[in-house]
Amino acid sequence: TGADVPAVARLFLKVFRGADKPADQELQHYLCTLALASPSHDETLGTHVYEQQDGRIRSALLAVPMRFVACGTVLPGRLLGVFMTEADKEAAGAAQLILALRPKRADFAFCDSASPTSRDHLLAIGGRSIPVQNLEWVRSFRPAGALAWRVAERFLGGRRFGLSILIRPLDSLLRRRLPAQDAAEAGAAEVVEMSVPDFLVQAPRLVAHYAVRPLWSEEELSWLIALAAQNTRLGIFTIRGVVDRAGAVIGSFVYYAAPGRCAHVLNVLSLPGREPAVLDAMFRHLDQTGHVEARGRAQPALMAGLSLQRWLVFRHRAFVVALTRVPEINDAIARGDVYVGGLAGEDWSRLLGDFH
Fold first, then answer.
1. Which one, of 187, 206, 333, 189, lies nearest residue 267 by Cα?
2. Contact criterion met (CB below 8 Å) for 127 and 321
3. Per-position DSSP letters for 8-24, written without gaps between them
4. SS3 letters for 93-154?
């Protein structure tokens, strides 16, 4: 409830930021919005806390209700997010929160940021892994610049002290020696501006072919976009459309623009079979707008298009696990016919890297 927010915010700081102190109003407001303000909010599907007999909250599992379409039926769903517990104080509370996630009816829960321990707990209560989406792809446009950016972010507090100028000639040489590979449909698509109202119309259409997918009503998707846009640490929240030669929309992508740094891609949406053309247009756009690299979550439908790209590698990001007792949903998960991630996931949340 709203009354629990100060305690949960303090627990978050202690567990994830190593600071045992009251949270400021900004973090409390963000947690309140995240946990209690979703258009699909339902206290049975929302954030749960474990309160001890003395009234202290030492375990909490943040969750965001999201409606899903599963095999033609609209189901209540929930994104399982940050899980926090003072393990040295109250292990029973953590166990109770995990056991409470056992699917008991026709609903759908998922987590796309699970640690190895959380993954094991979720699998133990009936969860199903979505293996491909455990991976993150990283596409370099300027390899030396990307390396300099990573060094600056990790060791220099983001300050590059002129490194960009020094390594620019090296990147020019590398790009001449290894030119970008042409896509299977070279020139078949181009990137265009896309407003939020247009995206609200196009996004549900571009995921409609998945058996399990977010419903993305106008109200719910608008709320998610507004929250995602607050994560300015990653860059400027940006939406772009992809059109074919006739000007018809065949895809869209959502990302945090940060020229000179990394473009964090939340979603790549595409009509079925047009993924290679959409990806090629997206990567050309991100390169032309001055990003040193781009990264995003792998999905089964994107793998054919991603395999056409040079200077692209995969690495483990986090485990993706789904929980449901609906057999048709589990069958769809097994064949990769499910769309989660990005705006239908947790990658946009400020809790992953903000509020230090």
1. 206
2. yes
3. HHHHHHHHHS---SPPP
4. HHHHHHHCCCCCCCCEEEEEEECHHHHHHHHHCCCEECHHHHEEEEEECCHHHHHHHHHHHH
The residue written with tokens 């509370």 in the block is 93
Residue 107 has pLDDT above 90, yes or no: no
Contact 106, 99 (CB under 8 A): no
- Per the confidence metrics, is the pTM higher than 0.90? yes
Would you state the torsion angle of the CA atoms of residues 307, 308, 314, 317, taken in this order, to the nearest 10 degrees?
Answer: -80
C-alpha–C-alpha distance, residues 149 and 135, integer Å? 22
* Rounded distance between C-alpha atoms, residue 149 and residue 99, angstroms: 42
Give CA–CA dist 245/195, Å, rounded.
20
pLDDT in tens, 108-161: 999 999 999 999 999 999 999 999 999 999 999 988 777 777 776 776 665 554
Tell me how many degrees the CA angle 121-124-129 measures, rounded to the nearest 5.
80
Which 3 state secondary structure label does DSSP give 353? coil
**Of 109, 151, 146, 160, nearest to 311 (Cα)?**
146
Shortest CA distance to 295 belongs to which of 275, 311, 278, 272?
311
